[in-house]
């Protein structure tokens, strides 16, 4: 029998080690695995490399990890998002490294890793300072930049509903980076708001098949990522 | 007379055709959604995986899982769809999104765009700006013609780091509509009552006045919002 469900977030994040590379899903608040990241703050692993679109906000989740000095390097597209004060402070003091990647290139590098590809050529950034030092190639008369796959040791992702097999369904704009990151890490840990019996999710509604998931933990939505509307309420 | 921010957005919206798929950047471009002609079906795309973005959610009816790329709570229109980031940027980079309306720090006469890194900005961030600028066939810049300090933003060559070379097709400002052509910048329209020479003075690049250059056709106000002053 396959049972990927674990009881608590602290149990779910226990394997994370010092120096690990971790992907965090989410864009803005939707899809941020806030409970798992908060559990990682308690866990204590440090010297981490984090892959996320932004740089977190305030003292919550990624913002908190940065505030605590636990991140060595951030790989992101938009680390100057509103509220990313912890990152800003450490970056200006030279206490955190930044690898700035255009958003579409970031997700495609993750996708390439998950899909077993050795990288890809993209037109994005060709001839700009973000392509400095990178291999470029002219294909059909257009300049392209080579981008390498981006792998991770762990991915923390958030689903809305999931089952013990690791099948996940998202709601609204929660998907963003989550389904892609779920393919690209050695250990993929998902938090879900509802853990349902196998078969409760119809095959058509499963966005992330359980094959990609290693651990799933049911959580109550963090108050910072406020409550979704109740079932049946006006959308 | 010059256009207000809403006036610029109104003018851009007139040029988005029925059946277009449009990504709107921050600032003035966001306002374009308010002025879309109601007789056209136009889908608004948000990079975080939404096609068919509707109006902002009314206060008290926000869905915490539905935000746009500016992290504002939005609604969905009939026919909208939700997807992940890889598919979202397939739409952008693959040229499926037909129009991108974006702000700019500088635009050059050859269509070079600089809009991702402000001089002196300490923490850089690029987001989806480069993917849009390289991937979307119709890049329409919506911005004020000059900086807060009165300096031209349309130049012979950009001084700020480029977002993408040669990508801008049209420039909509509070003073004018300028087309970027292989032969250089062409002044197509001026704000009502403004002389082409006033636009030329505010532009630090050669500007050819089109033979059929005309005054913009837009009302003084729309739904009580001032469009020009």
Topology:
The complex is a heterodimer of chains A (235) and B (229).
Chain A: E1 5-6, H1 9-12, E2 21-24, H2 34-43, E3 48-51, H3 62-67, E4 71-76, H4 85-92, E5 97-100, H5 103-114, E6 120-122, E7 136-139, E8 142-147, E9 152-158, E10 161-162, E11 168-169, H6 178-181, E12 185-192, E13 194-195, E14 215-218
Parallel strand pairs in A: 1-14, 2-3, 2-9, 3-4, 4-5, 9-12, 10-13, 12-14
Antiparallel strand pairs in A: 6-8, 7-8, 10-11
Chain B: H1 5-14, E1 21-24, H2 28-31, E2 43-46, E3 50-56, E4 74-82, H3 85-93, E5 99-102, E6 106-108, E7 113-114, H4 129-135, E8 138-142, E9 154-155, E10 168-172, E11 176-181, E12 184-190, H5 196-201, E13 207-215, E14 221-222, E15 225-226
Parallel strand pairs in B: 1-2, 1-5, 5-8, 6-9, 8-10, 12-13
Antiparallel strand pairs in B: 2-3, 3-4, 6-7, 10-11, 11-12, 14-15
């Amino acid at each position: 029998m396959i049972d990927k469900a674990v009881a608590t977030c602290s149990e779910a994040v226990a394997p994370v080690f010092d120096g690990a590379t971790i992907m965090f899903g989410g864009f803005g608040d939707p899809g941020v695995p806030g409970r798992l990241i908060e559990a990682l703050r308690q866990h204590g692993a440090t010297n981490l490399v984090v892959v996320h679109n932004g740089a977190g906000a305030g003292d919550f989740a990624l913002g908190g990890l940065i505030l605590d000095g636990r991140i060595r390097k951030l790989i992101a597209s938009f680390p100057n998002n509103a509220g990313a004060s912890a990152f800003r402070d450490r970056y200006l003091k030279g206490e955190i490294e930044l690898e700035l990647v255009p958003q579409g290139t970031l997700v495609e590098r993750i996708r390439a890793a998950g899909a077993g590809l050795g990288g890809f050529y993209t037109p994005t950034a060709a001839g700009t300072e973000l392509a400095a030092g990178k291999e470029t190639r002219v294909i059909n008369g257009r300049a392209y930049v080579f981008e390498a796959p981006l792998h991770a040791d762990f991915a923390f992702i958030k689903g809305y509903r999931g089952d013990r097999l690791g099948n996940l369904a998202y709601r609204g704009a929660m998907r963003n980076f989550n389904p892609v990151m779920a393919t690209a890490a050695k250990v993929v840990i998902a938090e879900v708001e509802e853990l349902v019996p196998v078969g409760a999710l119809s095959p058509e509604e499963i966005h992330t098949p359980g094959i990609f998931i290693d651990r799933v933990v049911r959580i109550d939505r963090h108050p910072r990522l406020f409550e979704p509307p109740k079932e049946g309420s006006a959308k | 007379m010059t256009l207000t921010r809403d006036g610029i957005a109104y003018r851009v919206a007139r040029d988005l055709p029925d059946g277009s798929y449009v990504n709107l950047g921050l600032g003035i471009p966001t306002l374009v959604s308010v002025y879309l002609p109601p007789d056209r079906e136009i889908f608004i795309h948000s990079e975080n995986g939404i096609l068919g973005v509707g109006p902002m959610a009314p206060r008290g009816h926000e869905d915490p899982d539905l935000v746009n790329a500016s992290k504002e709570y939005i609604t969905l229109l009939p026919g909208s769809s939700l997807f992940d980031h890889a598919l979202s940027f397939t739409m952008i980079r693959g040229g499926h999104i037909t129009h991108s309306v974006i702000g700019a720090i500088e635009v050059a006469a050859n269509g070079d765009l600089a809009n991702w890194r402000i001089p002196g900005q300490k923490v850089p961030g690029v987001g989806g700006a480069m993917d849009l600028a390289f991937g979307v066939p119709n890049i329409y810049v919506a911005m004020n013609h000059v900086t807060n300090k009165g300096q031209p933003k349309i130049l012979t060559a950009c001084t700020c780091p480029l977002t993408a070379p040669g990508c801008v097709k049209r420039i909509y400002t509070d003073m004018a509509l300028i087309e970027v052509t292989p032969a250089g910048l062409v002044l197509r329209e001026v704000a009502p009552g403004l002389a082409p020479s006033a636009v030329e003075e505010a532009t630090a690049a050669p500007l050819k006045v089109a033979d059929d250059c005309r005054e913009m056709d837009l009302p003084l106000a729309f739904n009580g919002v001032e469009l020009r002053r």
